[in-house]
Amino acid sequence: MDFAHTAVASTPSLQIILGSTRQGRIGDQIANWFYQVVTTRDDVRAELLDLRDWPLPFFDQAVPPITGQYSPEAETWATKIREADGYVIVTPEYNWSYPAVLKNALDHIYKEWNTKPVAFVSYGGSAGGSRAVQHLRQVVAELQMVPLRDSIMLPFAHRLFDQDGTLTDPAYEARANALLDQWVTWAEALRGMRMGAAGVV
Q: How many CA atoms within 13 Å lie on the side-chain side of 2?
């Protein structure tokens, strides 16, 4: 089997991006829960990216990232993001939107996001972070990503986990697997499109 066919047949790579760096956050429990769900499957491999580990400066470059000209910090971030076939963004809701640190991470690079699926796991108060996801959908569309229709929303998330950090409602695991089913389908299709555009047959 040649390299191209091996690449097509390989398991798609998912990066789970934790979009909060706030002290005392519950987002790490949520991201770890979703990561554990992924590890029970054999049709996707996952990596968890915590934005605390990627302290990008506020974007202030003279040229937009669509030109492909990145700062050294952004180039390192781009190298990591380039590895994935798509993403799941875990985000809280701040004042009807999502955190500035997440917007900054999205804004620093461009082409590495293109033609890849993205899904959302959100959390917050009664709305479960849904308004943050509404704003994110507009942004990722401009980055030429493909946002999945379905998402997972966790209202009052601090009430959903026990003292050991376990999500107590099993229904959420079923929702996570349904979301991953959709994600895998899109990841495989879009990877084929990217390879075709690159002239790999």
A: 3
Closest alpha carbon to 30 in 166, 147, 142, 135: 166
Q: Which of 51-65, 115-129, 159-173 has the weakest average pLDDT?
A: 159-173
- Chain centroid to Cα 45, Å, comes to 13
Domain 14-194: which topology?
Rossmann fold (3.40.50)
CB of 8 within 8 A of CB of 192? yes
Residue in this structure with the two tokens 């979703």, named with its chain if needed? 34
Query: What string of DSSP letters covers 14-26?
Result: EEEEE----TT-S
> Pick from 8, 16, 4, 43: which is nearest to 121 by CA?
16
**pTM listed for this prediction:** 0.93
**pLDDT at residue 9, as a whole number:** 52
Tracing tokens 């040229």 back to the chain, one arrives at 63
